[in-house]
Amino acid sequence: MSVWLTLLSLLAFVVLTLGTALFVAAEFALTALERSTVDANAKSGDRNDLFVQRAHRTLSFQLSGAQLGISITTLATGYLAEPVVARLIEPGLHALGLPVGAASGIALALALLIATSVSMIFGELVPKNLAVARPVPTARAVAGPQLVFSMLMKPAIIATNGTANWILRRIGIEPAEELRSARSPQELVSLVRNSARHGSLDAVTATLIDRSLRFGELTAEELMTPRSKIVVLQADETVADLVAAATESGFSRFPIVEGDLDETIGIVHVKQVFEIAPADRKNTLLSSVAQPVAVVPSTLDGDAVMTQIRANGLQTALVVDEYGGTAGMVTVEDLIEEIVGDVRDEHDDETPDVMIAGNGWQVSGLLRIDEVAAATGYRASEGEYDTIGGLILQELGHIPDAGETVELTAFDPDGSVDDPVRWLATVVAMDGRRIDLLELNYIGRRSEHQNPSDGGSDHAKKGR
């Protein structure tokens, strides 16, 4: 009788461990699944897929049921398995000559360790890892039994879940009945980058998605062409002057002003030339053909800027700062380039915004700080500037001449404050009072130069 009881107890231990495994697998598999995947699979009409869909639609309830099932099976496992395993171990300890009292205590401790280890490995860790690695087939296998258990234990689940929700509400937290399937742009960006890092997405596709998701975080000020690069035409100039300006600059859109950009009366597009007879172009004032232009604040986000630009035929908007002055102009081409990268035509300057120069990089002074970081690896700290040229002006404290240099400290949250990463910036060319081109070279940390064996001399490699 004792032998049969021992065998039955061991069999119950195995069954209870499998029960724990089932509930753990259900918990992790259902949590790992996205609503869209579940609904798409359920369209096949397969019974198991329908079970998964039903369980996923009551996810909070099913998770509570899984937790209750795990608690019941693990408690029962400990109650049944530990005494049985202890009785099996104890004779061997007696044979080693241990006293009765010591043998019983050691046997119980070993039984607890063995039962807990087996239950943890086969009842929790193995099914958890399986559910995370293969959530769909795992969910199809366990959703049916999970639904049956939750239905049978509904009163207990409601009682325990209700108590937990009451406690949360008492501390000011409103419990959610299901996990959210939607993802924030920041979460999607992280998913895209991880997918690209592991080879699930190619680099080009990942970059395009990443830029699209981050587009809404940019402001009109970051998207615009700055005021200093805008070519304007006066209101008393003619359509013939428009043709000459388009030929010389390669631009197609021109603000029409009475003095300067702060007094813009409208905008003209070079295609409007074809609406005027050749004989009348020298006599037709631009003020008579200028069209109203949208005006947006510099703080407007990228999505709203896109909406404003698409709403007008010229696909252009002027950007004004907090004082009402014109800060720049943003076109649909600016928005497209922010997503797909640089778009060049036969009229664009052939000099790229970023290019390798020796052991460093030659960059446009108008590049935003985040664009410089993406292209070169140099990350600037937060400051009262948007462009790399603005950073150099702040560091120098004056309008520089070509050839001036300044040492920059890179933002490195994981590095030592006393030994920061250093870069050298050299002004290559000026455009009036604006830095047109500059060169960035990685210097490294001082500690790297003190110990050449660390490889600190390979600046270009480490910087990139």
From TrEMBL:
Residues 224-285, 286-350 form the CBS domain. The keyword Repeat applies. It is found in: Cell membrane. Keywords: CBS domain, Cell membrane, Membrane, Repeat, Transmembrane, Transmembrane helix. Pfam families: CBS, CNNM, CorC_HlyC. Residues 2-205 form the CNNM transmembrane domain. It comes from the Bacteria. It is a multi-pass membrane protein. The chain crosses the membrane at residues 59-81, 93-122. InterPro entries: CBS_dom (IPR000644), CBS_dom_sf (IPR046342), CNNM (IPR002550), FAD-bd_PCMH-like_sf (IPR036318), FAD-bd_PCMH_sub2 (IPR016169), Ion_transp-like_CBS (IPR044751), Transptr-assoc_dom (IPR005170), UPF0053_domain (IPR051676). Belongs to the UPF0053 family. This is HlyC/CorC family transporter. It comes from Mycolicibacterium komossense.
